[in-house]
Each structure stands twice: as structure tokens, then as C-alpha cells.
Amino acid sequence: MEIDSNQNSVSIETRNADNNITKYKMYISEGVGWIGSILVLIPYVVPFSKTNDFILNTLGASGLFVVCVTSKQYQSIVINAAWIVGGIYKYLS
After folding, report:
1. What pLDDT is attached to residue 5?
2. Where are the domains of the chain?
3. Region 61-76: what's the mean pLDDT?
């Protein structure tokens, strides 16, 4: 029985590359979530105009929404979608 060492090394390299891509996706997702959390909290600390408050809350909730969708956290998806829709409604009224 012969073992082709070239084939095994390519397979290992492919798995390592896939693991690295998965890690980077996780880090990006975590970063988007943290940025979203900060953007939602900033208007509670710093007084902004209605437009800036709307932009920060909508961007923050959208970031959190994306993270929740990628990690399949359905309760958080619903609350962040409601936060986005409510913010748009409040801004337009």
C-alpha cells in the first residue's frame, strides 16, 4: 500500500486554510457585534440630534442583527429587527 505524501500535505493545507477562514469570519462577526453594541449605547451617554441618534441606533441594531442571524439567535433577531423598525418609525413620525 503506497501513501502519496503530496496528496496528504495538500489535504492538511486545505483543512488549515478552511480553519483560518472560519476563525477570521468569527472574529469579524464578533467585531461587528461589539461595534453594534457600542453604537447603540453611545446615544444614551452623549446627547445627539434626532438624526444622529437615529443613525447610530439603526447602524448598531443592524450590526447586532447581522451577528444574530449568522449565529442563529432567533430571539435576538426579533428584538433587533423590532429595534430597527421602531427607530425608523420614530424618526419618520
Report:
1. 54
2. 30-92
3. 93
